[in-house]
Amino acid sequence: MPAGRDPRVVAIFGPTGVGKTAVALELAERMRRAGEGPVAISADALQVYAGLEILTGAPSPAEQERLEHRLVGIVPVTRSFSAGEYMPLAHGEIDAALRAGRRPIVLGGTGLYLRAALSHLDLAAPPPPGLRERIGAQIAARGPRELHATRAARAPEAAAGIDPADRTRVGRALELLEMGALTGPGSGERSQLWSQATRHPTVLVGLTMARAALYEAIDRRVEAMIAAGAVEEVRRAAAAGASPTARKALGFSELLAGDPDAMKRRTRNLAKRQLTWMRKLPNVTEIDVTASTPAAVAAEIDGLLRGAAEG
Predict the structure, then answer these.
(1) What is the pTM of this model?
(2) Smallest Cα–Cα separation from 83: which of 40, 130, 115?
């Protein structure tokens, strides 16, 4: 956060399974004791979907009683959704909270959505009807690596830095290419992830965890989701006609195929990418939560907020 600006927003980012929600709940308790009114603004690309709460790790009803969460479960599972649609909603929720004298806690693990919530981004328009579905079908039939190679042949500079196995980014890049929105290295939405400017003074915190501990937490998380009914949830969503973007939810295809081990592997890979991305964020304060309790981490974040306000 630039010097001389009192923080009005706190943003907590971290890999899946690191315990962001638990930390936010403890931070909210501290804020209420200090006379503040916290509200969480979700920055997760899949928690927006109603009907995928278990699979996406959305806050439970009990957790939402402890801390109000906005932008969770707001989109029908049958509808496609994009960061361009999310951004004005997030800006509206943050601005409304600030006008009401409340403290927004932007919370999530989707990098683009985090930046969209905190900044003004020049995002490409949503794809025209049918394009996302067509590209999703191509990825399902041919695999992301083959389509990444096709994209690289058409726009080699724009393909740089995209993991050929990352279905989500390969799919979005192909959409942007079809829409004429990718023209060179770092073009399109990916270039917007590195802006240092935020709409409001913000303390940005990145939660990290030792790799072995994180992977154990991820395995436990997947097993808990399955025990809570994630397989049945995914089957219901698929039967209802889940959109291509909803089907990108981590574990959707794996659980439909009856392969929870594949879901665990894919989740670990995502966590690695999230950590890599987080460590490149400007002005981020990293907190290692491996040996800490959520209450202790919340106390550290509270100290950062007060220190920034005083500085």
Answers:
(1) 0.79
(2) 115
